[in-house]
Amino acid sequence: MKLSVDWLNEFTPLSQIPFEKVLEKINTSICEIDDAEEFKLHLSSVITVKIKSLEKHPNAEKLQTTIATDGSKDYQIVTAATNVKVGDIVPLALPGTKLDGKEILDSELRGVRSQGMYCSEKELGLTLESSGVLIFPSDTTLGISVRKLFLWEDTILTIDNKSITHRPDLWNHFGFARELASQLQLPFNQFPFQAETKLESGNDGLSVTQSEHAHSYYVCSIQNVNIAPSIPKIKARLEKCGIRSINNVVDVSNYLLLELGQPTHFFDKERLQSTTFSVAKSAEGTSFPLLDDTTPKLPKDLLLIQNGNDPVALAGVMGGKDSAVIDSTKNIVMESAVFKREDVRFSIRKTNIRTESAVRYEKGLDSFTSLPVIRRAVQLLKENGNQNIKVYEPQGFNHTESKSVTIKTNLTFLRHKLGKNISQNEVTEILNRLGFTVTNQGEELSVLVPRYRQNYDVTIPEDLVEEIGRTIGYASIQTQAISMAVETPIRNPLRELERRVKNFLALEAGFSEVYNYSFASPTDAKLESSEESSSLKIANEMPDEHSLLRNSLFPGLIKQAKVNQDRFETINLFELGRTYHKEGKGSDLAEERRWLAILSLSKNKPSDLAAVESEFLCLRETISELFEYLNLPKFQWSKSNRNYFHPNASLVLSYDGIEIVELGILHTRYADDYDLKRRAILAKINMEKLVDVWEKQGRNSHFIPPSNFPQGQLDLSLLMNEKDSTESFANLVQTMKIPELESVFVQTIFKGDSVGEGKKSVTYRFQLMSYDKTFTQERFKELSDSLVETAKANGYSLR
């Protein structure tokens, strides 16, 4: 937001205070300033001059030599302009002026000295295109700068909008000056809201239908307007704040917006189809032309202004083109209203139209300004070239006229929150300066909030603490050490475990941690749960992709992988977060669960199943190493079935019979839904179950003294069908209860012509260890024979 210091001075004498102190007070007690810049400072050396003589250039056919005067000094100027003549008053850029990045020099053109350059409107920044030198009216004062002539001698403050998003009263010059006056203890001029206007009796046929869709809504008939350019004062102030001047009626509406922060709108009365106005919600597909030359199809329940049965404005956002003020307008209808901020925010979100009016409405304005703004508008219209207008009595309603907010608190509370022993007189004086009305009963305070701050801004005692604190200056509050006992912090096993797991994955395994929103779309919610009733919907309206709370961490990781799949060959991600599950419990609170989800995106083609299987086994090994790292070695992997995993690549890890981890390759139907080009291997760890196991088992010693005897191993190759599971025989061996058997795993899998079509050769490796004697050849043969017999007895063929 831009503010004119010259305009602020109209309400409070800031010129009495050093400008550096004003800026400091704004930054420390009100809001952040992004910039403070002199407006069009480079035009200070562009002055008004009158052409005294004009002759053809002696050495150039297309140039002219002129003598111009500023009233006290003459200048010789060479120009190529053809629209100037003797007696014209024109702008002259003196040597040293910079226009469009080029510096004007005192130089010679074809042997004739030129002491500057005449300027066009484009070179002065008045228009985008122009032809010829700008010629001023004949009564223009000579020798003054263009900045002074156009009322551009001003400093413009650029305010950081985010720092005043909670302060709708500051989004205008009047309100900002009021705040500055209170902070700097300067006098304040209330004149805009005290404008006196003579009104004609009657309503000129206008009527307004009562509606609950607006806090207030008024219309007023104004006759005998004359459309013309605005006066220099209004035109200059709009331009300095970044708004283009249109005409002397529309400019008044924009001027009021900047001056008082109250949006208004003017309709051409002759272009309206009815004299009745109402505020209503849109039907699906409603459409009418807007001022930005678009005709969008509106969704259901957007707030509209209806003229009879016709929509004429998107309430609080933008007016309609068919009823707008044009050059031939003679009679107008002025609208002044305050709409509910929720409705305006809804309109902004659904239409993606964000105007200066909408920005102010969405902050939450109070309706008390609706009528005074009409009086001020009439005063401005008369100043701006419409002295003969006839204004009729406003028609409408105000539902919140009697609203008031009173906050009860006490000095003890204020002192405790501030951390400073502030007196009752000081509290009362500060709040009174800020517009509050304070009633004291001993140390108890009853504070009436001013109308312009009672909506969403100052509503609880803590808000008063902030008002007092920023006014006295936070730097005046001494820093004190906290007085509290130093106690051993309560141990949080879950946090300890989370840190260990994250350290292992990030530092040992090389995975990258990501954070995703807890919001999800209906599509995301169906990945792990097909029942929509188990998803928790967000109460306030959100975009569809963020309408639910997530019940799975997988969609977020998959979307991260999709974004990065064309950028990185290796993508290994993990996320620690919560999921939310309603589980059909009706009005009961939803259940929160804590998970750690892992995604590893395959580096190989989706059709290369052997390579993908190898990557799957690699991630399984990483999770196994994690459990070893947590001192939980007695885990078991087993096959499982999850609808979102490939049916032949889905495992669960259990510990003491408790399922803690699930691991699998994402099913292709889900990979296609998320546009994944590569196979995604996913895993998730139930952190709540893991912490229970870790607390019971992770602190136990699982150390086994090493054997004094060498380790032995046996390999056995079996021929089986290609689709047979390799774990079946491994599980069978475990049931044999071989005392020396430490582990059994698949060493190699071979497929080829030598083993036959549809067959595979699987080599199992058996790790053997004896703790009481050295293995003998007899014992090796005995174990080998028993393994072979078991294989044959269960239908396996040796290879």
From TrEMBL:
Top class in the EC scheme: ligase
Limits of the B5 domain: 402-479
Subcellular location, record wording: Cytoplasm
CDD domains named in the record: tRNA_bind_bactPheRS
EC number, as in UniProt: 6.1.1.20
Necessary cofactors: Mg(2+)
Cofactor binding: number and manner: Binds 2 magnesium ions per tetramer.
Binding site residues for Mg(2+): D457, D463, E466, E467
Catalytic activity: tRNA(Phe) + L-phenylalanine + ATP = L-phenylalanyl-tRNA(Phe) + AMP + diphosphate + H(+)
Key words of the record: Aminoacyl-tRNA synthetase, ATP-binding, Cytoplasm, Ligase, Magnesium, Metal-binding, Nucleotide-binding, Protein biosynthesis, RNA-binding, tRNA-binding
Domain of life (superkingdom): Bacteria
One Pfam family it belongs to: tRNA_bind
InterPro entries per the UniProt record, alphabetical: aa-tRNA-synth_II/BPL/LPL, B3/B4_tRNA-bd, DNA-bd_dom_put_sf, Fdx_antiC-bd, Fdx_antiC-bd_sf, NA-bd_OB-fold, Phe-tRNA-ligase_IIc_bsu, Phe-tRNA-ligase_IIc_bsu_bact
Single GO term (MF): phenylalanine-tRNA ligase activity
Residues covered by the FDX-ACB domain: 707-799
Positions of the TRNA-binding domain: 40-147
Keyword Cell membrane appears in the UniProt entry: no
Family membership: Belongs to the phenylalanyl-tRNA synthetase beta subunit family. Type 1 subfamily.
Assembly mode: Tetramer of two alpha and two beta subunits.
Stated name of the protein: Phenylalanine--tRNA ligase beta subunit
Gene coding for it: pheT
